[in-house]
Design brief:
This protein is α+β, with helices and mostly antiparallel strands and about 280 residues long. It folds into 2 domains: about 5-140, no CATH class; about 145-279, no CATH class. About 50% of the residues lie in helices and about 15% in strands. The protein is built from 12 helices and 7 strands. Strands 1, 2, 3, 4, 5, 6 and 7 form a 7-stranded antiparallel β-sheet that branches. The chain is globular. This is DUF8083 domain-containing protein.
């Protein structure tokens, strides 16, 4: 599992996005009071995975089927953790490009075999027919926030709380708005700078959003990064506005304005990333 100093991009889907069995499960889950707050989730995920794997790392464990839940009026939206799939994909990823001897030391062959079977089953045609297209509802980035995520939100959607024990900085927006913003950003980037890495990154984010129900909610959560940043830094953070300024500059052909906004944004988040070395 990633460092606790991570940010998160999540999608909360309405129950209608799930099959009947899943809808019934999530209703029971919420009724029983089992839903986990986003502030508590990362630590709980780490604990669940570490305890389930144990010291031997000899098998892919069963993991709790949990989720973050949003309730807006009469609508319930769910962001499943998909822990077992994420652990399986992480195990396979850890072996990529590594000599076999080292790969087996990090992730034993037996565990890797189980992980491959789980991922293939999750993506299988039979499962898609029964449960719909598989999708992971949460993306994670350690020691920073990917710049492409800021494209999806608006500064006015910020939620900030700096009270002790409740520190949080997040943005929540409707899926339709996030999709429109990513589409506009892609149009501007393709016309102004072409198929460069930032364009490809925004396109990747846009494609990911297309996997979900159109009435979903998208959340950009600074997660554990709020514990790295002083209160005045959190209050002054205007990263989405800088992205919007940069895109507006590109759209008008004002490269200098766009470059200034981009450089400021990169410098800000590079300073956060450098703290990883100090830890």
């Amino acid at each position: 599992m990633p460092s606790l100093f991570a940010s998160y991009l999540r999608v909360y889907e309405p129950l209608t996005a799930f099959d009947r069995d899943r809808q019934a499960y999530w209703r029971r889950y919420v009724h029983q009071g089992r839903a986990v707050a986003p502030q508590e989730g990362p630590a709980r995920q780490r604990t669940a995975v570490i305890e389930a794997l144990g010291a031997g790392w000899t098998r892919l464990p069963d993991l709790p089927d949990e989720a973050y839940v949003l309730e807006t009026g009469e609508t319930m939206l769910v962001c499943p953790w998909n822990l077992r799939i994420r652990v399986a994909e992480a195990a396979l990823s850890a072996r990529e490009g590594v000599p076999a001897v080292l790969a087996d030391a990090f992730v034993p062959a037996v565990l890797a075999g189980q992980a491959k079977a789980v991922v293939e089953d999750w993506r299988s045609g039979a499962r898609v027919l029964e449960h719909g297209v598989p999708r992971l509802h949460e993306q994670i980035s350690t020691w920073g926030v990917p710049l492409r995520w800021f494209v999806l939100v608006d500064p006015e959607e910020r939620e900030l709380d700096v009270a002790p024990g409740r520190r949080v900085l997040r943005y929540r927006t409707e899926m339709s708005k996030a999709r429109r913003r990513s589409s506009r950003a892609l149009s501007v980037l393709r016309k102004s700078v072409g198929e460069v890495p930032i364009t490809q990154a925004v396109e990747e984010a846009a494609r990911w959003l297309e996997e979900f129900h159109p009435r979903s909610v998208v959340e950009l959560d600074y997660g554990g990064l709020v514990d790295l940043l002083p209160e005045d830094t959190l209050r002054a953070d205007d990263s989405p506005a800088l992205v919007a300024t940069g895109l507006a500059g590109l759209a008008r052909g004002e490269a200098e304005e766009a470059s200034a906004a981009y450089d400021k944004l990169v410098a800000r988040w590079r300073a956060v990333q450098l703290q990883e070395r100090c830890n």
